[in-house]
Design goal:
This is Sulfurtransferase. InterPro entries: Rhodanese-like_dom, Rhodanese-like_dom_sf, Thiosulphate_STrfase_CS, TST/MPST-like. Keywords: Repeat, Transferase. One of its GO terms (molecular function) is thiosulfate-cyanide sulfurtransferase activity. The chain is an alpha/beta fold and 288 residues long. The chain folds into two domains: 124 residues, Rhodanese-like domain (Oxidized Rhodanese, domain 1), CATH 3.40.250.10; 109 residues, Oxidized Rhodanese, domain 1. The protein is 31% helix and 10% strand. A five-stranded parallel beta sheet has the order 1-5-4-2-3. It has a four-stranded parallel beta sheet with strand order 7-6-8-9, with helices on both faces. Helix 5 packs across helix 10. It is globular, with a radius of gyration of 18 Å.
């Protein structure tokens, strides 16, 4: 797990030994997308603020979703603003169970950054471990990193539909949104036909730390995930689905992210399923 996650104490130790550790503060949430005020109030010493809306998402037509992936030149410009150079170790964190930090992890890994780690337990874990915060902005010297995307598997809308029928497509939103009971953001309520539901917020414990790999594996196997079958994940707009990619990878799977997620699917004329159990309308229980 050490190549994906890092504890607060490990981060302190690593930073003391290696001057090429770069820390990114990726605070964002639906009800408060601009995390800069909270960042300025207190952040891990040396951490640079990352604007998810502006730097970890692109702009596109509604059918591309609310948070389409940024193009590589834009991501590279942002990474250089964060002070990143080739060969740096990058640690990402947020203040909400690593949901948005995982988006940064996915994008940087996909773009060729070898050593990217998620701070396990997020900012709360840092504070609980007794480590200090600092206030104000951190503006590093511009970096020179070179990025090239395409290293992590992802799904187009057609591929997501196919995985839902031929493998396991996991909808990691809250159950009420999966069932279509409510839809506060996107134009249609429900889920991709055949998708199964497993809320990604339950992949962490009460302190916001990822569950052990064997517990994560058991959770995903309950909804049919198998290492020898395609496994895809989606959420509302592709942000928290990255959190599920982290959890699935820790559990030993090779997940594929559907970046457009429900916000893209619901803006097309694709069929929509509602109701049903968490195992989807096509099955009564876990796949054999």
């Amino acid at each position: 797990m050490s190549d994906i996650l890092i504890t607060p104490d490990e981060l302190v130790d690593l930073s003391a030994r290696d001057e090429r550790v770069r820390i990114l503060d990726v605070r964002w949430r639906l009800d408060r997308p601009d995390g800069r005020p909270e960042y300025l109030d207190g952040h891990i010493p040396g951490a640079v603020y990352v604007d998810l809306e502006a730097e970890l998402a692109g702009r596109g037509a509604p059918a591309e979703g609310r948070h389409p992936l940024p193009d590589t030149p834009s991501l590279e410009r942002a990474a250089r603003r964060w002070g990143l150079d080739d060969g740096d170790t990058v640690v990402v964190y947020d203040d909400l169970k690593s949901f948005s930090a995982s988006r940064a992890w996915w994008l940087l890994k996909d773009a060729g950054v070898e050593d990217v780690r998620v701070l396990d337990g997020a900012l709360r874990g840092w504070v609980a471990a007794g480590h200090a915060l600092e206030q104000g902005d951190v503006v590093p010297a511009p970096g020179s990193i070179v990025l090239s995307a395409g290293r992590l598997p992802q799904l187009t809308i057609d591929a997501a539909a196919a995985v839902a029928q031929e493998g396991v497509l996991i909808d990691v939103r809250a159950p009420e949104r999966y069932r279509g009971d409510v839809e506060p953001i996107d134009p249609r309520a429900g889920h991709v036909p055949g998708a199964r539901n497993l809320f990604t917020g339950e992949s962490v414990d009460a302190r916001g730390r990822f569950l052990p790999p064997d517990e994560l594996r058991a959770r995903f196997e309950e909804v049919g995930a198998r290492v020898d079958r395609p496994v895809g994940v989606y959420c509302g707009s592709g942000v928290t689905a990255s959190h599920a990619v982290v959890a699935l990878t820790l559990a030993g799977f090779s997940p594929r992210l559907y970046p457009g997620s429900w916000s893209a699917w619901s803006n097309t004329e694709r069929p929509v399923a509602t109701g049903a159990s968490r195992f989807g309308e096509a099955h009564a229980g876990p796949l054999a």
